[in-house]
Amino acid sequence: MKFLVDAQLPGTLAKWLRGRECDAVHVLECGMAQTDDLSIWEKSIKEERILVTKDEDFFIFATRPKDQGRLLWLRMGNCRTQDLLTRLNKDWEIIASAFADGQQIVELR
C-alpha cells in the first residue's frame, strides 16, 4: 500500500508505515508544507496513495461523487505520537484489510 501523511501528523507516522512495508511519505518530505488541501488530495490521487489525516476537509473531498481518492481518517483527537502508533498497531490488520477489500474511507476513532 502507498500512503501520503498529512502535515498535522508526525513524520514518525510515515516511518512507522514504511516499517510495515508500505510506501509512505510525509507531505514535509515532498516539500508540501504550505500546500493547500486540494493540491495534497490531488497528489494522493495521482500517485494512488491513501491520504492519512485528521483533517475533515479531506473527508469532504473523499465523499464527492466519483472521487477516486482514498482516506485513512484519524479521529481519535489529539494524542502523543506513541499513543497514535500504539492504536494504529492494534488496528493495523483491520485497516489494511479494509483497504485491500476496496474500501475508500477508513475511519479510526
Walk me through this protein's architecture.
This protein is of the alpha/beta class. It has one domain (about 1-109): Rossmann fold (3-Layer(aba) Sandwich), CATH 3.40.50. The chain is built from 4 helices and 5 strands. It has a 5-stranded parallel sheet with strand order 2-1-3-4-5, with helices on both faces. Helix 1 (about 10-20) links the parallel strand 1 and strand 2 (about 25). It is globular.
Topology:
Layout lengths: L1 E4 L5 H8 L4 E4 L10 H10 L3 E4 L2 H7 L7 E5 L6 H20 L4 E4 L1
Parallel strand pairs: 1-2, 1-3, 3-4, 4-5
Radius of gyration: 13 Å
Order of helices and strands: EHEHEHEHE
Number of domains: 1
Largest sheet: 5 strands, parallel
Q: Tell me, what is the CATH class?
A: Alpha Beta
Q: For the largest beta sheet, what order do the strands appear in spatially?
A: 2-1-3-4-5
CATH architecture: 3-Layer(aba) Sandwich
Work out the helix count: 4
The average pLDDT is 97
| Poorly predicted ranges | none
Q: Name the assembly state.
A: single chain
Q: Number of DSSP strands?
A: 5
Q: Label the structural class.
A: alpha/beta
